[in-house]
Each structure stands twice: as C-alpha cells, then as structure tokens.
Amino acid sequence: MTKTYAVIGDPIDHSLSPAIHNAAFAFLGLDCTYIAYRIPKDDLAEGIESLKLINIAGFNVTIPHKVEMMKLLDYADEDCKMIGATNTVDNENGKFKGYNTDMDGFLEPIKKRNLTCKDSDVLLVGAGGAARAIVAAFAKEKVHKITIANRTKERAEELVKFANKLGLESEHTDLTSAGNIAGNYKFIVNATSIGMKNNSSPISTRSINKDCIVYDIVYIPVDTELLEQSKKQGATIIYGWEMLLAQAMRSFEIWTKRKAPYEAMKLTLLGRF
User: HEC states along the chain?
Assistant: First the structure.
C-alpha cells in the first residue's frame, strides 16, 4: 500500500519539498508519494485531523505552523523540545512524533564551507520557528553573541530569552538599526519570509562587507535581494536551497530509515529553479 507524506503550511504553493522527496522515493523504488497540503494559520487542528483520517505516514511543517504544531504532537525528540518548534513529524503506529531537522540542516552548508562559528557575532533577522532552530544551532556551535532583529519587539524579546537560556549573550534591535550595523557581524542570517518571490531585502545591505557571511533561508528566488546585494559588497553567500536540501535529507531518513539519495534530491531541486 502506498505511503503518503506531505508538507503543511500557508502559503504552500511555492514549496519544492514534493519534487525533492518524490524524486528520492522514485530513485530508491519506494512505494511512497509526497504532496503539498495548505492549512491556513487558524485551521491547524482541523488540518491535522484530516491528515490522521488518511493515515498520513509523516509530514514536514513550514510557516506558520512550526511552533503551534508542538501542541498537537504525541511525542517530541530532545532537539524538538529544546527548540520549541517542529518541522518534521513521523506517524509512529498512530502517534505523531515531532523532530526538528532545521538545526542540523542549517549548519550543514556552513560546515561544508569549513566556516567557523565559534566566538562569532551573529545578526539574526526574524523570530519565528525557523529562527529558534537557528539560535539553537549557533548555541551548539558556541558563538559569542546573537542580535535579534524583528518587526515585532515582543517576539524578538522572547527569542533573546530563549538564547539566554541556552547560554548565549543576546540582544534585540529593530530592522532599520540592523541594516546600519550589519557590517559589524560575521554571520548575517535572514530567517523571515521577506525576500520570497522577489520581495525587497529585510534589512539594508549598505554596511555589509567582504568579512560578512550572509545566509538567507529563503530559497525562491535563489538569489534574493539580500544575497544579490551582499554579493556585490563582497560578502560570502550561503543559499536557502542548501538548508532546504540538508533538512529534507534528514526528514527522509527519519521516515524511511534509509540513507537519502543526495545527488538525486539535489539535481531535482536545482532543476526547479
């Protein structure tokens, strides 16, 4: 019997996860399929009930449900509990177990470039579920300080407290100020959806320079305005598709208990741009 997997979120029409996972299933000859399922922000509980009715084998969680989905899990692994957000859910004998593959998925492209996080200063734009995983990732790598820039002060303050709890020095600022001071940071990370579908950059790039590493987790377009402008300033660039691929491979391995076919997934992903 065919196993069905999904990605849930809103918006969801941009998601490349179905293409990546279906390519991996086909490459390994697995009788599985993966679909995109739009669940509006206020309809999460109903949407999850619908997934239970079709006996969903597992699913990915994206904006805006990563934090809220925690309340609907039967179990959560340690990373997931620590971060307080989930992006991967496995149906284990009718029980939903949550994982977070964003943390390791985020770090993978940094490690592939042999870049050092330890003792670095980080400017993180955004304070949602993905941002929490990124804070946890940087804490794991023992950075010096994280400055959180966000539209709403309350969300930024919450994330500062979370960073402090993980032993990190942290502070918050607004988006305008963040653009002015960005050049003082080794890592500048966009964890918002600003930049998706050719929006403008979330912060000014004027102060970004060749000593900065700019990482945008938005993957459509490949070259967001933030990355495009930062590249012109001589900064090192890390693309959103790299994190997408790394976290997708980890999700695939949780569900199937098999090694993810890296090349097949990468070729499919890059062929979509």
Answer: CCEEEEEEECCCCCCCHHHHHHHHHHHHCCCEEEEEEECCHHHHHHHHHHHHHCCCCEEEECCCCCCHHHHHCCEECHHHHHHCCCCEEEEECCEEEEECCHHHHHHHHHHHCCCCCCCCEEEEECCCHHHHHHHHHHHHCCCCEEEEECCCHHHHHHHHHHHHHCCCEEEEECHHHHHHHHHHCCEEEECCCCCHHHCCCCCCCCCCCCCCEEEECCCCCCCCHHHHHHHHCCCEEECHHHHHHHHHHHHHHHHHCCCCCHHHHHHHHHHCC
